[in-house]
Amino acid sequence: MTLNLKASVEALIFAARGMTLERLSKITETDLDTVAKVVEELIKEYSDEDHGVELKKVGDVYRFYTKSEYAQVVGKVVKTFYSKLSPSQMEIVAAILLNGPSTLQALNYLRGKDSSAIVRSLHKSGVLTRKRQSNTYIYQLSENFKNFLMVEGVLEQLVEHPEGTKPSSSASEP
């Protein structure tokens, strides 16, 4: 039985809650260009007004997100305690979303000011998780928060950083 490639790619992105083209290519045993064309078809298909979700690329990962116009109705079944993030908190979230897991020092460098209180509050509220690496912590977005981003359309509010501003994760923090 031969599986439909487009349906397979769609199912993989949905089930994994996001995938890169490279991973899709490897799993489907299909060349990268063909997978890229299939993903573009899916993006176009899901942009149609008949769908409540859309396929977006964030970083190198393609993921399905609830369209922002449906966030209010979907919010009735999803906890939305994250929806009141301050602009400073959104800067931290945007920096980690766009640059990947980061140290406090890297976040301070990106923002140009001390971020320790904000990072602490985001960690305490469950937006960030941290992992000890030698004498520092590496902060990343929690799985719950990533799932929240899929529903609320928060991505559209995030400030984009120029290409090549990836912070270093080798610095220590207090």
Written account of the structure:
With 174 residues, the protein is of the alpha+beta class. Helices cover 45% and strands 15% of the residues. The protein contains eight helices and five strands, in the order αβααββααααββα. It has helices spanning 5-16, 21-28, 32-46, 71-74, 87-99, 104-111, 116-124, 143-152; strands at residues 19-20, 53-58, 61-66, 128-133, 136-141. The strands form two sheets. Strands 1-3-2 form a three-stranded antiparallel beta sheet. A two-stranded antiparallel ribbon has the order 4-5. Helix 2 (21-28) packs across helix 3. The longest helix has 15 residues, at 32-46. 23% of the residues are buried.
Record keyword descriptors for this entry:
single chain; 174 residues; alpha+beta; 3-stranded antiparallel β-sheet; two-stranded antiparallel sheet; 45% helix; globular; disordered C terminus
Write the layout of secondary structure elements.
Blueprint lengths: L4 H12 L2 E2 H8 L3 H15 L6 E6 L2 E6 L4 H4 L12 H13 L4 H8 L4 H9 L3 E6 L2 E6 L1 H10 L22
Antiparallel strand pairs: 1-3, 2-3, 4-5
Helix pairs in contact: 1-3, 2-3
